[in-house]
Amino acid sequence: MLRITNLNAFYDNVHALKDISLEIQKGEIVSLIGSNGAGKTSTLSCITGLVGVRSGTIHYKGKNITNVPAHKIVRLGISLSPEGREVFPGLTVAENLKLGRYSKKENTITTNTTYERVYTLFPRLKERTLQIAGTLSGGEQQMLAIARALMSEPELLLLDEPSLGLAPNIVLMLFELIKEINKQGVTILLVEQNANLALSISNRAYVLETGRIALSGTSENLLHDANIKKAYLGSV
Ligand SMILES: Nc1ncnc2c1ncn2[C@@H]1O[C@H](COP(=O)(O)OP(=O)(O)O)[C@@H](O)[C@H]1O
Ligand SMILES: [Mg+2]
């Protein structure tokens, strides 16, 4: 579904991504793990057209989407739940969701079906449709960020650090929902600093280290890899 080949990206003269190659098959959950500053968000930003690609290519469903602008990427079926959630704090839950729908042509029937689908996944949001997003808890804001990303009916969902700053019980609940979204047919690229957690729900994973893919494999194998354990899982 997605194939990144020898991708290089820079911020001025900072070489943030160095020859990144990765691929995602339809139906998979693939995680991209690595510590702070490794290049995880930059990788997502290249896919979504928010950061320019210097060299290398990104193909989505066989189509070259390298440096295609962000608004067109959403229309192609790729949607992002950004790091730090970035909900619109002064708008209600329903208004935030509506903004996630902007890329779709107005069609009341399909729009209502999408709201129903999203509210079924996140009943907590349904109870709070008129609540101002800035007054939601961190976990609810994370749900809203993911729900907003689903409003464009993506085939590929990019999740940037959904567990960040949330209590462990909320994180577990959220990750069950991520699995459910995947079961409903959405392919997922999951970016996480929490390697253990990401490996526990993904099929395969890539490990980023200072802008390079250091390791990749099935999540099962990486969970048992001694180097990964030492570097990322807090045990030997
Ligand atoms: N807007 C920016 N301007 C300059 N450097 C940046 C910018 N965003 C990220 N970087 C740098 O690029 C590298 C990768 O950052 P990032 O992709 O945000 O990592 P991660 O998401 O894995 O924490 C880091 O060295 C970071 O300092
Ligand atoms: Mg990041």
Q: Mind explaining what this structure looks like?
A:
By secondary structure, this protein is an alpha/beta fold. The N and C termini lie far apart (35 Å). Helices cover 37% and strands 26% of the residues. The protein has a single domain (2-232), classed as 3-Layer(aba) Sandwich (Rossmann fold), CATH 3.40.50.300. It has helices at 40-47, 70-76, 93-99, 108-121, 123-126, 138-150, 168-183, 195-201, 219-223, 226-232; strands at residues 2-11, 14-24, 29-33, 55-60, 63-64, 78-81, 156-160, 187-192, 204-209, 212-218. It has 10 helices and 10 strands. The model has no long low-confidence stretch (mean pLDDT 94). Strands 6-7-8-3-9-10 form a 6-stranded mixed beta sheet, sandwiched between helices. The chain has a 4-stranded antiparallel beta sheet with strand order 2-1-4-5, covered by helices on one side. It is globular, with a radius of gyration of 17 Å. The longest helix is centred in the last third of the chain and has 16 residues, at 168-183. β7 (156-160), α7 (168-183) and β8 form a beta-alpha-beta unit. Bound molecules: adenosine-5'-diphosphate and magnesium ion.
